[in-house]
Amino acid sequence: MIPQFVEIKTGDGLALPGLLYTSSKSKSLAIFLHGNGSTSVFYDGNENRIFADALAKKGISTLFFNNRGAHIIKKLNVQKGKKKDRKAFGMAHEKIRGCIEDIDGAVAFGKKRGFKSFYLIGLSTGANKICVYNYYKPRNQIRKYAIICGSDDTGIYYHQLGKAKFWKLLKLSKQRIVLKKGDELMPELLPNEIFSNTGFRDIANPDGDYNVFPFYEVLQKVKLSKKPLFRHFKSIKKPSLVVYGGKDEYAWGDVSKVVEILKSKQPNFEYKIIKGANHGFVGYEHSLATTIASWLSQLQLRSK
After folding, report:
1. Residue ranges of the chain with pLDDT lower than 70?
2. Strand ranges in the chain using DSSP code E only, listed in sequence order
3. Are the C-beta atoms of 277 and 288 separated by less than 8 Å?
4. 8-state DSSP, 228
5. 53 Cβ partners below 8 Å, 6+ apart?
6. Global confidence as pTM
């Protein structure tokens, strides 16, 4: 399969690049949401093709696109009418609720191309984004969700920074945002972590939308959040598949326990642990792709 370079237009004025793998006469489109950090769908080697080939065998086309959180820092044009502004995006500046505009833009693109059925596949931060999207827009046009290795970034930063520094930086970021310094990078995190004040507060705030999978709070019995835990995940009513690698390095050393926590919140979802796979499923891409493709095709048959 040879991908077609495409452009996704969002309602708030971004043009995001993507790759479309079209399955012959397919009316179903799987939209892939990548993870965070320096991620880009244009540097994944053969991984995109593995996914696309597996889904094509089930009659499903695949859209990969760089959402606004791609790369660590990326300047993008924001086009509104005749006015064009150049603004900073990427992980360092991203607010996760921006995924709503990105996903809606991808669905609108698919509809213009004649697709009738839509699925969301989210890996890592992409899994969090599925839950956030559904939470704020439950009446959407997506039929099924594949939620892959959703992680607890808030817990990770709390653990890495330590209690005192974590709360100190969270308070500092809020103060700087109030002073209209949200786009400035936080020097306290350099050089190991690159975040603007806005970006850090969004990803680390225990009561923010990023904190979809607060495993650390449950496993370590630490109270960070005031809002109900797993509220985004529990809001999902669409058929969903949850997948983790058996050696996911961000699952606090206990993938089985993490999955059991999720099962207690959503017992009717389907769950799969791929033994031996890490967070990125390196070396297990075929297993992941065929697992998702088979699940989507089975649901397609049931829904006819």
Report:
1. 45, 299-304
2. 4-9, 15-21, 28-33, 60-65, 74-80, 83-89, 117-123, 142-148, 240-245, 270-274
3. yes
4. P
5. 1, 289
6. 0.95
